[in-house]
Amino acid sequence: MELLVVLVIIGVVTGGALLSFGLLGQDRRLTEEADRLAALLELAADRAELEVRDYGLRLRSDGYEFMVWTPRARAWQPIVDDALRPRRWPAGIGAELDIDGRRVTMPKKADPGDPPQLGADARGEFTSFEIRLRRQGDPLTEHLAPSPQGGLARRQTGAAR
Length: 161
Hints:
The chain is about 30% helix and about 30% strand. The protein has 1 helix and 10 strands; from the N terminus they run αββββββββββ. A hairpin with a 5-residue loop joins β9 (about 140-145) and β10. The longest helix is centred in the first third of the chain and has 50 residues, at about 1-50.
């Protein structure tokens, strides 16, 4: 009987540890994706300032891509650069976008002629936006928005684990 009780206790502790490890791993992926997007946005702003050209970000429901304004073509062009290449959201992670306080509906698929929804101008300053990243079914949310002091501000809301 004592052996059975010990086995049940070991099973419960092991199950709890595996469950919490899985949940923490998913939170880490959400934070890593927010870190990656923030770093890429800051890289685009730095390049915009150095090259004196506008850079943009086009968000879709399945991912995002960076674009650059080309004055000769008078059009937004996708960037051909490994650092700012198009990316897909990791499984289960999605984004919401507000521009000037208004929700933007993101297309499922990008049309090559669509302009970016937000960007950094030739001075390296961002347009007004807020991007929220979250995992489906989880209130934990990563927020990215321009900071009044310059650069990006990040914050996390939702239930702490």
